[in-house]
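REQUEST ID: PR-0412
SUBMITTED BY: lab tech R.K.
PRIORITY: routine
TASK: structure prediction, single protein chain
INPUT:
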Amino acid sequence: MNQRTSRLAVLATAVVIGAAGFAGCATGPVDRRALCTGFDELGKDLMSANGIFDNAVFSSAGDLADLADRYQGGGLSADASALDRISDADETDNFELERATSETAKVCGHPLGIGTTSYAETGGGSTRANGGYGSYGGYGYPDPTTSAAAPYTQPYTEPPTSSPPTATSAGDETSAQTTLQQQVDTDRAQVEALADKWVPQLSSKNYGLVADGTTYDHRAIWADFTTTRQSYPSALLLWSGDYTSYTKGDFWVTVANTSFPTGAAANEWCVAEHLDADHCFAKLVSHSHGPKGSTLPR
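STATUS: complete
OUTPUT:
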């Protein structure tokens, strides 16, 4: 990594050049604990930045790039490359950092800057109570700390495709967040079938949102989803951080399981269903299209 001159600049969510971290000087494979310590450090620096990213963010991004590249579980080369580009850049933003750590977040069990990693010896993963995803966030990845013979080399498994969660499994905050992620995993294949098409978006909630007289925690978000499903049983749940067409990556989004070639056609569906403009509008769900032009309000 190259040493940079410190400077500070305020952007929409952004940015300053950073000094490269020292992690790149080390060699050899690293385990999950080392990887996720770097991941949590970047998250802490990101949350402390408050929209003004100083050297610490760029330095931590460079350190994590090195750790991801040397992670002995493999599969993080894309994150490593993206983080390395960020560490060498003049500016970045929250959304770019979330995308650059998407696979690392699955290993560590929680999104960047939300919660911290747990290093439980058995059962493991980060717990929902501290903001993590529990058992690697419900992504379906086995916890590498549970195998004494080969603690970090167990193969990944596919996310669940059956046995969707029920409302009774979300009785408290911890299980509600787990249940939300399980629902996202269950619905993922059907949501992917809607990719790059316009769909009616029925709800979008994140933790702490205040709307319609409700302050949303994970139990309220799950209740919102199940209420919508009572009217639209085929409705699907997605995590906005999985798609580039969303401005923010921390929302649980409910969409109708139907697609249209244009946003106008999706909005016509909302009108036909007698849903108001605040609770139904056209959204493009995409892995390649940016947020601009991906929403068509009514």
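NOTES: The CA atoms of residues 206 and 251 lie 5 Å apart.
REVIEWED BY: pending
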